[in-house]
Design a protein that fits this description.
elongated; about 200 residues; 1 helix; three-stranded antiparallel sheet; seven-stranded antiparallel sheet; mainly beta
């Protein structure tokens, strides 16, 4: 049974004990107060009735910051050189999708979103990796660039692996962002080549 609250702005009877009052909720979800002794109701919290405990503040999820976050690669953490959104052309379905890219010294990984909970792929940086600016040619994405890299695939002869070359078509939202991505990727490739050549 839902009681109809009284129309007074304050408690209907301030002389009653606080233990006589209890919280109730009407059909619309609005909170009101009921006195179990006098059967009175009021919208306003009775004087002295304990206020509801405040809800704890939500703790925001930490967002990655350049140079301060790390991602797992080969079982160990590596520092991030650059990260941000780029557009990528699909290899099978030739449509463009926005992905979140993370550049490290060893690879360029791309994720479904900036939350970095679902990795969509990884471009390994090797001595054969190359980057070049793509012509506009009236394309929808004017600020494009191509990244050519070796891809290893299982299932070669005698159960081994095969390596083939793949071109990744990427695009930035503006020219400044394209130049910055190309600069840091090219620099990382050169450093990676020097490191790999030094191991030979």
């Amino acid at each position: 049974l839902i009681r109809t609250p009284c129309l007074s702005k304050g408690p209907c009877d301030r002389a009653t004990k606080m233990s006589d009052w209890s919280e109730a909720i009407d059909e619309s979800g609005k909170v009101y107060y009921v006195n179990s002794v006098t059967n009175e109701t009021t919208w306003s919290r009775p004087e002295g009735y304990p206020a509801p405990a405040p809800k704890p503040a939500a703790i925001p999820s930490p967002r990655p910051r350049p140079g301060s976050i790390s991602v797992k690669s080969g079982g160990h953490a590596v520092n991030v050189i650059k990260q941000g959104y780029l557009h990528k052309k699909g290899h099978v379905v030739k449509n463009w999708k926005t992905r979140y890219f993370v550049l490290t010294r060893e690879a360029l990984t791309y994720w479904e979103t900036g939350a970095m909970t679902k990795q969509k792929g990884m471009i390994q940086l090797t001595s054969n990796t190359a980057i070049e600016k793509a012509p506009a040619d009236g394309h929808r994405y004017l600020h494009r660039f191509n990244l050519t890299a070796d891809v290893m695939q299982a299932g070669g002869m005698k159960g081994g692996t095969t390596t083939f070359e793949r071109v990744y078509h990427l695009a930035s939202d503006d020219e400044e962002d394209r130049q910055e991505w190309m600069r840091v990727i090219a620099q990382t490739i050169d450093e990676r080549k020097a490191f790999l050549n030094g191991m030979q």
